[in-house]
Specification:
The protein has 283 residues and is mainly alpha-helical. It folds into 2 domains: 173 residues, no CATH class; 63 residues, no CATH class. 55% of the residues lie in helices and 5% in strands. The protein has 9 helices and 3 strands, in the order αααααααααβββ. The longest helix has 33 residues.
């Protein structure tokens, strides 16, 4: 294949008859921040169970013309979809990831109230947290691990398909008694909320310790420049300004924007080792 200048691209071969460019194209670059992978997360899989169970519960026990049906199904869907969207947005924005996880958490809390209302309005019993029935639903993952034929197998519910996972909960989620179904879904919502709370705490911790996407991009750019300068002279045509070192610890600084205080909205140089070092330089 010819280049625009007439040269033959196949000349740039690694000896195997394949061009260097095509070889490099097969090596995906590692992203600065990973994203995705939500399909194997316990929170997403539990939210999928909740969504499916809510859809079929409303179809069987509620008037399809009722506004409540649409609200419950949409709340269940929102919980699931926002977990997926949060996972995909994690690569670009920690704040967006946190916002979507909190939306998922709020949607499931709304759905929890709807199922509790269903039981209360019909004078049906709601299982206590420590009841035998509630423990049986919570212990499904434990029983799955204990009942494996090969005890050296380390797989868990996240390794199953949606259909296989549903089958484990089918004795409750397909029960003819609406109280059993509603209580089982309530148990699953509590599990999903617990998992989401853990995700939110982890995302907040990562944001505090590692900074947002823009800060990580600036730090990666700085690290790249430092590597390049060690290998060769700096390009004088590069318009990137000289990056100062922290007056406290000597590490490279990162360009930040004040979020509060009298200088809100103004940019300043902050230490790349923040929050361990709070050194800063005003522009």
């Amino acid at each position: 294949m010819r280049e625009p200048d007439g040269s033959d691209r196949s000349d740039r071969s690694d000896g195997s008859g394949k061009s260097e460019q095509s070889h490099q194209s097969r090596q995906p670059r590692k992203r600065l921040r990973p994203s995705g992978g939500y399909r194997t997360s316990a929170s997403f899989q539990t939210a999928t169970l909740i969504y499916d169970a809510t859809y079929w519960f409303c179809e069987k026990f509620l008037d399809p013309r009722s506004r409540l049906v649409d609200q419950m199904v949409q709340a269940a869907r929102s919980g699931r979809q926002n977990i997926a969207e949060a996972s995909r947005s994690a690569a670009a924005s920690s704040q967006t990831e946190l916002r979507l996880l909190n939306v998922a958490r709020a949607s499931l809390e709304e759905l929890l109230l709807d199922f509790e209302d269903f039981l209360r309005h019909r004078h049906l019993p709601q299982w206590s947290r420590d009841s035998r029935e509630a423990r049986a639903v919570r212990e499904v993952p434990l029983r799955f691990r204990e009942n494996r034929a090969d005890q050296s197998d380390q797989s868990d519910l996240t390794d199953l398909t949606d259909q296989q996972r549903w089958a484990l909960y089918a004795p409750w989620l397909e029960h003819e008694n609406p109280a059993v179904r509603a209580n089982a879904i309530i148990c699953l919502i509590h599990q999903a909320n617990y998992l989401l709370d853990q995700q939110i705490v982890a995302a907040e911790k990562q944001f505090i310790e590692a900074g947002g996407y823009s800060e990580q991009l600036a730090a990666a750019r700085l690290a790249f420049r430092q590597r390049r300068e060690r290998l060769d002279e700096a390009d004088p045509s590069d318009p990137t300004p000289c990056i100062p070192h922290c007056p406290r610890c000597g590490k490279a600084m990162v360009l930040r924007t004040a979020k509060s205080g009298p200088t809100v909205g103004r940019q300043f140089w902050g230490c790349s080792d923040y929050p361990r070092c709070k050194g800063h330089v005003q522009l």
